[in-house]
Amino acid sequence: MTRNLVIIGAGMAAGRLVEELAQSDWNITLFNAEPRGTYNRIMLSPVLSGEKTYEEIVTHDDDWYLEHGVTCRFGEHVVGIDRAAKVVTGQNGPVSYDKLVIATGSAPFIIPVQGHDLQGVVTYRDLDDTNAMIEAAKSGGKAVVIGGGLLGLEAAAGLQLRGMDVTVLHLTDHLMERQLDEVAGGLLKDDIEARGVKVMTGASTAAILGEDRVEGVLLEDNTGLEADLVVMAVGIRPETRLATDAGLDVARGIEVNAGMVTSDPDVLAIGECTEFDGQLFGLVAPLYDQAQVAAQTLLGNPAAFEPRELSTKLKVTGCELFSAGDFAKADDREDIVYRDPINRIYKRLVLKNNQLIGAVLYGDTVDGAWFHKLIQDGADLSLMRDWLIFGPAFDGGPPLDPMGAVAALRADADICGCNGKDFSQDFLNRKAA
User: Fold this and answer.
1) Do residues 162 and 293 make contact, with C-beta atoms less than 8 angstroms apart?
2) Which of 278, 238, 246, 279 is nearest to 264 (CA)?
3) pTM higher than 0.70 for the full model?
4) Is the domain of 342 the same as that of 384?
5) For position 99, which CATH number holds?
């Protein structure tokens, strides 16, 4: 028997869900406020910089939807959900459902300062935002990007490559503070500035200046910056308005159980709009996991979403970064740190009770996956601590000599333990004893 499934939103999580159900007996109607289907949002940065076109990042085109019998209602906002009647109403009329999936994603946070609604102020979340920045860059001029997280830095890099004079404003003392510690954030700042983008940390925006359109940005310390374009990249919030209006349980996000079911057994939710066990999700890996679980739930098969310890391997304007686990400082933790200033390589491992709980790598991320697995496994590293910083080559790889590895380091490189002593020399002394 054919059953009707309505999905609100066509982001990457929804795209994966439709793939999982493409061969099922569900009759799928897919709403999207954007006038297009699913594309790889992670690849918007290369579109902005000119390295790729939109067509190259499309994951589901019109032919794909037609082939799989998906009814597409793109460019149409959903205006309401009637849970009692089991009807979703779009701008062009209603559609009934047996099951509903809300995949509305997230909305960019707009700093509520004077001038935030001026022409020339844009966010950076979708293709329309990207196209607006590309169009603005055709005239050259000055751009101010508010926010030094991943999206902000990618926006800055793309606009700089398109010929704009770009300044990044970041509220905290170092860039990407959620993923990087202070040292790695400082290296990133230096490398970004070497590529022609000015970075101002500890910068708080007081107002966006202009009458009809943007003319500048005023900081809290009264510093003024000229601007023809302002990009807001200060964070996102789960898009929960439809769920709230429909009377579903909503905290920070739409609350779901392990099967991705909301407080209404006939309504599921996946993606950035969801909250599970007090957690929100923004990286693509858990969103795909949620989509797969939701598909099994809709097919009547047992499945449970289990959040996993995530790692972040990023490439920002050519800078290799890796971050996993918890790298905050605390008295019950110890650090192993490697620095090679000439090659701009920095590695910091955080241990607690002989277990690796955090890792930050900058400039050389090849061992990131191995460190991430150690964090996930909670492995006892008491016998590995002496060579841990050198990576998995010492863990079942080719037989290497740790003393030779230390001796081969550059003269200006150093490895130290949590107490700041020269860890490499201490290691050599103990091996020789």
Assistant:
1) no
2) 246
3) yes
4) yes
5) 3.50.50.60
